[in-house]
Fold this sequence. Notes:
By secondary structure, the chain is an alpha+beta fold. Helices cover 36% and strands 23% of the residues. Strands 3, 12, 14, 15, 17, 18 and 19 form a seven-stranded mixed sheet that branches. Strands 5, 6, 7, 8, 9, 10 and 11 form a seven-stranded mixed sheet that branches.
Amino acid sequence: MVQNYDDDERIDDVKEHVESGPDSDSFIAGKIKATYYNKKDAPLTKTNFKVLVELTGSEAGEDRPGVDIILVLDVSGSMKGEKLDHLKTATKFLVKKLSPIDRLSVIKFSKEGIRLCPLRVMTREARDNIEDVINELEAGGGTNITAGLEEALQVLNDRRFVKGREVAVMLMSDGNPYPHEADGSQVDVGNVPVYTFGLGQDYHPKVLQSIAKRSKGGTFSTADVENTETSNLSIAFAQCLAGLLSVVVQDLTLTITKQKSQINEVFAGTYPQSRDDSEGSVTISFGNLYSKEVRSILVDLVLDEVNKPKGTDVLEFTYSYKPPGGEKPYDAPPVFITVSRTGTPSEQENPEVLTEEARQHTAQKMKQAQVLADDKRFDDAKLTLNEAKTNLERNELDQSNPKIKSLQSEVNQFLKLMESPEIYEKLGRAFAFAAELSHSLQRFATRGDVNELRIFATASMDQFLEQVKKYEVNPEEPVPTLADDLKERIENDLMRDGVYGGDDHGYGNVQIDDGIVQFFRGVHGFFKSLLIKVVSLCNNN
Length: 541
């Protein structure tokens, strides 16, 4: 008999919230900050040219969509003891961070998948009940990933209340699939994002990466049970959750159209691209975007020849998205990128373009090193990583740039995991698979020393990282609510932008009313956006 899971709890008391104020760093259309980088001039002749477009999500605010999370937990025999303790700690932190607009269902799997609770609205009572369920988990049996994943998808497919909901499956395993064919590879996950987590040093990372890669936007993260100060399951769960609870837009697409140019190639990772040759355009589909998360798109152009010095439009871009819970898509007005054509152009490439090229080069070299190491060619793999390291140390790159520093840390950590074939087998291969998918999606995934390796991490993830460290020291201490988190991030934004100041002792004693925060943030953003628009109009005239 097939079990039907249409018993998901109804979400009540979900309030409508006004959109938060505009981001004060630059011009914003809707909930996205659009920035582009390129050389300001180019020769009169036909020439290659590069443009970097960055889309950054604004602060999610209190109007974020509720999330339906299906937590799929491996409780096979190898989880006995310390691993099961890590699992319980990590899961209980996740439960404490959810709000009443979120719902959670928990599934355990060993030889079969078993749903432990329906999709429950995360009230205080529900959180307490689910913590009791987690405390009662026991380990034993095989590792049937397929059964756990199929059970999770059925819970999602059978829901009654689906409108405006984000969904996610978080699947954790510590071992190789048993039976071997039960690795989840035959499960069609559709448009559901599946975030996978490998615990320890004795599992098949390719299996978990493959499941995440086949899903829509899912990542693969690693978690250690030995070096828990730098990487553990609590940290991995917390970093993933921080993103899921800060979705700012859904179904984000970017369309780039040629203007007095030809588009050679658009580098945007593995996100789907579609071309319209009649329009000379390329559209990239990104799915959802977290608060303060960035998508970098590098466009390789060939500029048309011109017969005299002048300013020419070389590229147009626009984007659209669906507001969380909204029916009508938001379409941003087009942005035209203009370049001065001159007989004496500067030769220096834009620093941000160079940085993005360095990131893509580093990701490519790490993938090559992983392939070489899997072929037992460890000397060649190390040589490849050292080439990446040398490239990152070039004088042309801004060595103080946080992205460059994080890339250098990533390469150095991977090199350490190449010190011996044994270390690579236990930790290095998983690190490489997590890095590959993270870079292709430009989305944070836990791997290695997360204190140093923060590439693609958001402000919300940084918050959760500090909170989960404190939680592990004292699990009985209350964790901050999402409202507390939001207020802290807004205050930090205001301090950084100089909207209000403090004395030499910092801002620890300043108490700010939420309404005042929103007021000053809105005023500051409004005038800065207005100034940018005026300057843009003057330049066009």
